[in-house]
Amino acid sequence: IEKVEVHGDHLTMAWILPGGKSTYYPVSPTEYTYGNSGKIGLVQDSDPLEGKVLYTERFVLKPISGFRVFGQISILVIWVILMVLGAFIAVLSLILFLRNSAKYANLLKISILPTCTSLSIFLMFFIPRMNIEGADLLFSTPSYLSIGVLLCSILFVFGSLTSAIVLILSKRLPYSKLITWPIICLIFFHMLVTIFLISQKVIPMITWS
């Protein structure tokens, strides 16, 4: 979710959560340059299916309602909490596995995959927002940044599917529900996000054309 705001002779765009902002200056009623680069970085247009949209070098954005924003932010908060819990359980599982590998091998197996999957989706969205010099150019062509984002998006899908398969094939887990249920819920959220991102053609995330 990106927040676009008009400020007199320019507009800014930033992620809905706290972070840096990109500034754009108009050169025509529908075209804006990115900062002082003189390069067109944002175009306002009309899509036959989606209606009014904004094209950037990385995204195609369309207006959404405040209710939808609230719903998506709420889901995001729950998902992040589950990812943090999943990472904690994965570390705990590794410690328990090192102490008693026979007893906790299955717990480690079902907890480590969702945590690696969480890491891939985090990198997938974090890398494009890193303040790297020349990032726009690097993302508009095949480079270590753009290919890294592509690989992270593919790994996220692979990790989501693999985590679900491993969980289904696992035997009845003789562990506390306080440990297993956050992992099960995290895998479920990963699968929902995978289906949504694929349906929205975000995955595979190819930033160049």
In short:
The chain is an alpha+beta fold.
Task: Give descriptors for this structure.
209 residues; alpha+beta; 7 strands; 55% helix; 18% strand; elongated
Q: Can you give a write-up of this model?
A:
By secondary structure, this protein is an alpha+beta fold. Helix content is 55%, strand content 18%. The protein has 5 helices and 7 strands, in the order E-E-E-E-E-E-E-H-H-H-H-H. Strands 1-2-3-4-5-6-7 form a 7-stranded antiparallel beta sheet, with no helix packed on it. A hairpin with a 5-residue loop joins strand 2 and strand 3.
What is the fold's blueprint, element by element?
Layout: E1 2-7, E2 10-15, E3 21-26, E4 31-34, E5 40-47, E6 51-56, E7 60-61, H1 66-99, H2 101-126, H3 135-139, H4 144-169, H5 177-199
Antiparallel strand pairs: 1-2, 2-3, 3-4, 4-5, 5-6, 6-7
Helix pairs in contact: 1-2, 1-5, 2-4, 2-5, 4-5
Strand order of the largest sheet: 1-2-3-4-5-6-7
Number of strands: 7
The major β-sheet equals: 7 strands, antiparallel
Instruction: Output mean pLDDT.
Output: 84
Series of H and E elements: EEEEEEEHHHHH
**N- and C-termini, Cα separation:** 22 Å
Helix content: 40-55%
Number of helices: 5
Approximate strand percentage: 15-25%
User: Which ranges are low-confidence, i.e. pLDDT below 50, for 5 or more consecutive residues?
Assistant: none
Cα radius of gyration in angstroms: 20 Å
Shape type: elongated
Alpha-beta classification? alpha+beta
